Amino acid sequence: MRIAVDAMGGDFAPESPVDGAIQAARVARGRYEIILVGDENLIRREIAKYSIKNLPIQIYHASEVIGMEESPTHALRSKKDSSIVVSSQLLKKDLADAVVSAGNTGAFMASSLLTLGRLPKVNRPGLGSFIPTEKGLCVLIDVGANSDCKPLNLLQFAVMGSVYVEHIFDISRPKVGLLNIGEEESKGNELVRESHKLLKESTLNFIGNVEGRDIFGGLAEVVVCDGFVGNIVLKFAESVVGMFTRTLKKNVGHNIPANVGALLMKPAFRKLKKIMDYQEYGGVPLLGLNKVCVVSHGRSSPKAIRNAIREARKMMEQDLNHKLMLEIARNQGA
Amino acid sequence: MRIAVDAMGGDFAPESPVDGAIQAARVARGRYEIILVGDENLIRREIAKYSIKNLPIQIYHASEVIGMEESPTHALRSKKDSSIVVSSQLLKKDLADAVVSAGNTGAFMASSLLTLGRLPKVNRPGLGSFIPTEKGLCVLIDVGANSDCKPLNLLQFAVMGSVYVEHIFDISRPKVGLLNIGEEESKGNELVRESHKLLKESTLNFIGNVEGRDIFGGLAEVVVCDGFVGNIVLKFAESVVGMFTRTLKKNVGHNIPANVGALLMKPAFRKLKKIMDYQEYGGVPLLGLNKVCVVSHGRSSPKAIRNAIREARKMMEQDLNHKLMLEIARNQGA
Predict the structure, then answer these.
(1) Handedness of CA A171, A172, A178, A184 (dihedral sign)
(2) Considering only residues 69 to 88 of chain A, which have any Cβ-Cβ distance to chain B shorter than 8 Å?
(3) DSSP letter, residue A117
(4) Which residues of B touch A297 (CB under 8 A)?
(5) Which of A23, A38, A43, B292 could form a disulfide with B98 if both were Cys (CB 3.0 to 4.6 A apart)?
């Protein structure tokens, strides 16, 4: 199998993607090849820093780069030879089976959605993301691929999130919760009330509504919501550690015992930060397309890229898309 | 002016509301009277613990209590003589000007919405809530009064939140942000895209879209959203400190230096907890009704009740409802 890696994507490109890809290639053991997509000269210059003899790495040239802040729609139209667009084309032409990018998320998602086909019966692909909880991790889906959703979309996100967690996280029949503002079925807006009915009739291990507080509590392993709500919650969650540590620092101030205390607690804080650090998890899956797409954080370190590549490999080895397809069909009377 | 206090509302009723009301009565200095609403015998027994001679406190009997976990719709229908329903009736009959309750939030809101009139031109009242930020506080509105909203509702929430912050927090022309999933006007679902247009044309100090991460960042003093999104964000925010401290504790474990560190940092942690403690802020305003309604947290301490009463007083002294009415009219071409 071949995994395309956007060498120009992310705040630390091409250094970080190239480094991460080389790390991944070193442990490939014949299971996959990596195609670094981007400016050939820049990539070669970067690669020259490493010894890559016999490593399964190729380069595929793409002359343009979509900036992290560029408007996705405009960028996709004007930069046909960007590493993101070219990567999608490689997948479309079956020259690669999976793609990892830490580049402009909006552009990467739009390019994937526009270029690749959807799995049968999937109306809208969904972007899952990991949220650390007190019991481990949960997958929140959708976190931004779809701002306006219908109940059927939420059912499909739930099915895809559940299959993903089952086969990638190895959790049998993961608990699926619908993000809502109360426990009762009658709670919430029209979208979730209708979605609740579909979820109740589904094949999933649906535990009913979960509230905002239940996300960190780890009540469910899969939390389903529309992409608007999911994106707001995700970005809010990402800001939590920063707010917390900065406020704590301010309270410690110049108080000497408190500063000593902070020093002694440093390892605990570091561990906490690590738990809350989305980079640790590599990349998040865009589910429902007929190829494997892994979206990495813009600030991805080489390690994050390596983890994202590992995730893409796992998704292919598990034949995840086939399993998604079967489970979607089972839930839509086909 | 007369402030009705639901003596039976909250996890610590009647002790906490009675205690808080007495504390408030002690500093009333002729500015207001307090009407404790609830079971007269229970209230008298509670009051007997204090010396309340000459304090401006009355009791208004209500024989029933709506439990914290009861379904609001059912409870309102079946318990006509509950402290919540009776309080609303007192306001309706002009026997009181404001009400504070730490009881079943859904029932209190529904009772207020059904019994009291709305301010002219207000289509839907909005529940504001306080979120601590790195720069102070922000008011998130709506946090649960309305699950399905129209753009005009969001405009009205924004106007009411802005007037509230201006006159109760004393911040001139507070910055108003629309909770969205990106900075650009074109971002988000249909509701926020349409709301953005209305807000841009409004009299408010509208700073545009704000994202999940900007809430804690304190980018805006008023953050507007529909009640579904707001309720999820609020409950998520409320769970943050617990998750954080429990995870930190787990990381500290039996490591002795880290435990000493935690001990030395205790005052800083306590301060942080206080900043994040929603109780400190007393109650949150239900805006848009023709009376003053303050919703207190179910776990309200006497201090929280006292603060909620102070807030109700402030809202009346500022003639807030009149100001809301004027600003709503200015923004709807009347």
Answers:
(1) negative
(2) 71
(3) P
(4) none
(5) B292
Q: What tokens does A178 get?
A: 């619908």
Nearest Cα of chain B lies from the Cα of A190 at a distance, in angstroms, of 7
Name which of A133, A228, A252 is nearest B188 (Cβ-Cβ).
A228
Name the residue among A239, A246, A266 with its Cβ closest to that of B213: A239
Interface touch B261/A257, C-beta < 8 Å? no
* ipTM for the whole complex: 0.88
Pairwise CB contact (< 8 Å): B147 & A216: no
Name which of A147, A234, A248 is nearest B212 (Cβ-Cβ).
A234
Tokens of B241: 């400190």
CB contact at 8 A, B68 and B298: yes
For residue A233, is pLDDT > 70? yes
Does A184 reach chain B within 8 Å, measured CB to CB?
A: yes
CATH superfamily of the B123-281 domain: Isopropylmalate Dehydrogenase (3.40.718.10)
On whether any CB of chain B is under 8 Å from the CB of A299, the answer is no
Query: pLDDT per residue over A33-71, tens digit each?
Result: 999 999 999 999 999 999 888 899 999 999 999 999 898
Question: Could you give the strand order of the β-sheet that contains B136-141, starting from the edge strand earlier in sequence?
Answer: B57-61, B33-38, B2-6, B98-101, B292-296, B283-287, B126-133, B136-141, B222-224, B175-179, B205-210
What is the domain class of B1-122+288-301 according to CATH?
alpha beta
Nearest chain B residue to A258 by CA: give it. B265
Reported CATH class of domain A1-122+288-320: alpha beta
* Of residues B180, B239, B248, nearest to A216 (C-beta): B239
Please give, one letter per residue, the 3-state secondary structure of B267-289. Answer: HHHHHHHHHCCHHHHCEEEEECE
Q: Tell which wins on pLDDT, A313 or A256.
A: A313
Per residue in A47-57, pLDDT (tens digit) is 999 988 889 99
Indicate the SS3 state at residue B204.
coil
The answer, for B190 touching chain A at a CB cutoff of 8 Å, is yes
* Three-state secondary structure call for residue A316: helix
Start-end of CATH 3.40.718.10 domains in chain B: 1-122+288-301, 123-281
The dihedral formed by the CA atoms of B136, B139, B144 and B149, expressed in degrees to the nearest 10: -140
Rounded Cα gap, residues B251 and B42, in angstroms:
46
Supply the pTM of this predicted model.
0.91
How far apart are alpha carbons A168 and A311 in whole angstroms? Answer: 8
User: A219: which 2 tokens?
Assistant: 């009540």
Confirm if B323 and B159 have CB atoms less than 8 A apart: no
B145 has a chain A CB within 8 A of its CB: no
Nearest to B87 by CA among B3, B145, B10, B165: B3
Q: Which of A181-190, B77-86, B217-226 is predicted with the least confidence, judged by mean pLDDT? A: A181-190
Q: Tokens 């943050």 label which residue?
A: B240
Q: Is the pLDDT of residue B7 over 60?
A: yes
